[in-house]
TrEMBL record, chain A:
GO MF annotations in UniProt: electron transfer activity
Residue ranges occupied by any Electron transfer flavoprotein alpha/beta-subunit N-terminal domain in the UniProt entry: 23-211
UniProt KW keywords: Electron transport, Transport
Similarity comment text for this entry: Belongs to the ETF beta-subunit/FixA family.
Protein name: Electron transfer flavoprotein subunit beta
Function: The electron transfer flavoprotein serves as a specific electron acceptor for other dehydrogenases. It transfers the electrons to the main respiratory chain via ETF-ubiquinone oxidoreductase (ETF dehydrogenase).
Automatic annotation (TrEMBL), chain B:
Function: The electron transfer flavoprotein serves as a specific electron acceptor for other dehydrogenases. It transfers the electrons to the main respiratory chain via ETF-ubiquinone oxidoreductase (ETF dehydrogenase).
Residues the entry annotates as binding FAD: 207, 233-234, 247-251, 264-271, 285
Domain Electron transfer flavoprotein alpha/beta-subunit N-terminal: from-to ranges: 3-187
Family membership: Belongs to the ETF alpha-subunit/FixB family.
Cofactor: FAD
InterPro entries assigned: DHS-like_NAD/FAD-binding_dom, ETF_a/b_N, ETF_a/FixB, ETF_alpha_N, ETF_asu_C, ETF_asu_C_CS, Rossmann-like_a/b/a_fold
The name this protein goes by in its record: Electron transfer flavoprotein subunit alpha
Amino acid sequence: MKVLVPVKRVVDYNVKVRVRSDNSGVDLNGVKMAINPFDEIAVEEAVRLRENQLASEVIVVSCGSAASQETLRTALAMGADRAILVESDAELQPLAVARLLKAVADREQPGLVICGKQAIDDDANQTGQMLAALMGVGQATFASRLVVEGSAIQVTREVDGGLETLALKLPAVVTADLRLNEPRYATLPNIMKAKKKPLEALPAASLGVDIAPRLRHGRHEEPAPRKGGVKVADVAELVGKLKNEAKVI
Amino acid sequence: MKTLVIAEHDNTRLAGATRHAVTAAALLGGEVELLVAGDNCGAVVDEAARVAGVSRVIRVEAPFYRDLLAENLAALVLSLVQLKLYGNVLAGSSAWGKNLAPRIAALLDVAQVSDVVKISGRGCYQRPIYAGNVLVGVESDEAVQVLTVRTTAFDSAGDVAVDGAPAPVEVAEAGPDLGLSTLLRREISRSERPELGAAKIVVSGGRGLGNGDNYQRVLTPLADRLGAALGASRAAVDAGYVPNDYQVGQTGKIVAPGLYVAVGISGAIQHLAGMKDSGVIVAINKDPDAPIFQVADYGLVADLFEAVPALTATL
Ligand SMILES: Cc1cc2nc3c(=O)[nH]c(=O)nc-3n(C[C@H](O)[C@H](O)[C@H](O)COP(=O)(O)OP(=O)(O)OC[C@H]3O[C@@H](n4cnc5c(N)ncnc54)[C@H](O)[C@@H]3O)c2cc1C
């Protein structure tokens, strides 16, 4: 079984982004970029499946500009076997990405797709679900445990009240939550090896799907900062403030 | 143009998120209909019909809707939208709504807007990105607007007056059973405490608690005294102090209680994303430079193992 793992290049999670002074967007000049943390977890899960002989090949795919090659190399260094860059310099919204991934899935026929549950830039949390819909297959989002059993999987999901476990037929789409695994660090020899692994670049246009943005993003602004608070000296002062000033207890 | 709100429920009770979504739906103009799909869910239908602002309840029952799984529900909503020409489809942005809405949007071949916090009119929204560090205006001309709405940004719709008439209930036919997924089990935490997403006071603990026993021993009495829900940082959940549904943050629950007490939490942006719209924030942390103090109304630099029991005793 092939496992397909879509990965996205995003602003590193440690960076606090700033809005451009004309409010037209976020200033990404010189900002550190990284593989989306949830996608990293997805790659790790796929690589473990292959290491446990439950998958034959792990293919990572990224939709975006040439810079996403770096993200794909990161995934290859973690142990993915080969990479596909669906290249486009245009803005790609979740529906467009899902369509491109569907086209790649048609070509590769993966038994399983593992996505990250959301990208930490647009925080949309849509692509996996959309891809599952377009492929006409089952979905198990926010996964914290994945068990492959022949042509089916069992997935434990993090839901609002706790956990739920689903059984799905393969092919299926799973989206990874934080506690699915702890991704490995790529070792230097593996980083070197990754440079030689196959990375195929496909122009997005060659896949023949409509990727025009459907949503227009207008004004970007930073939320009003909270008013500066005070430090209290001790518990007694804290309780006094909560009772008499804030009146919340 | 009519709006269809999809009800989240457990065949017994309507989830809180749905009432917030009804309030948001009213801002789009036009009638608001509430879809209750389930199995033996009569109690939910009755409850739904009494939610103020709902003009009609659409009731669809089949055994394969019992667990409200996304595949069959999305197929049902697709056929309802085509049949009844809804212009908008809404769900609360709970884990359930986030799982379902994008699937519906893709079947309808439209974009979806996640986590809407402001509706200025149909097709004109605001939503947070980058862990809530940026708010962006989003415009959409899609024929059907599919949205998830952040519950903390819209009030909960109440009930119609006791002597008021409930909304009419229309029974609609079930859609296909696709058989793509089945529920094996749910492990839902049962608690006497208020629900984290809806509580007026939240007491949250982080890695500073050290372990699960400490978390329970130190925070539970405080939460009991305050009638508060308990929450946690990702680090506390990852380390197994508390179950996953306690996590507050960018990728956990978004809460905005009147009072949020952060104990032994450093205040990473991913955590702040989930709680910085709280009314009053209290931080107890031994590190005076912890970023949590930048958002705290009242900061107490102290060892939590001394300060929290003292606080509990004083209340
Ligand atoms: C993709 C991604 C998503 C994430 N999503 C979330 C999310 O949704 N929610 C979330 O919370 N995090 C999230 N995180 C993790 C986040 O970046 C932080 O790692 C996490 O919030 C830290 O938790 P903490 O504050 O409990 O731990 P730490 O950062 O380790 O802080 C512990 C604090 O306890 C204090 N302390 C220790 N001992 C004592 C004592 N005796 N008395 C008083 N204070 C004490 C310390 O001074 C310190 O400030 C995410 C990270 C990533 C990469």
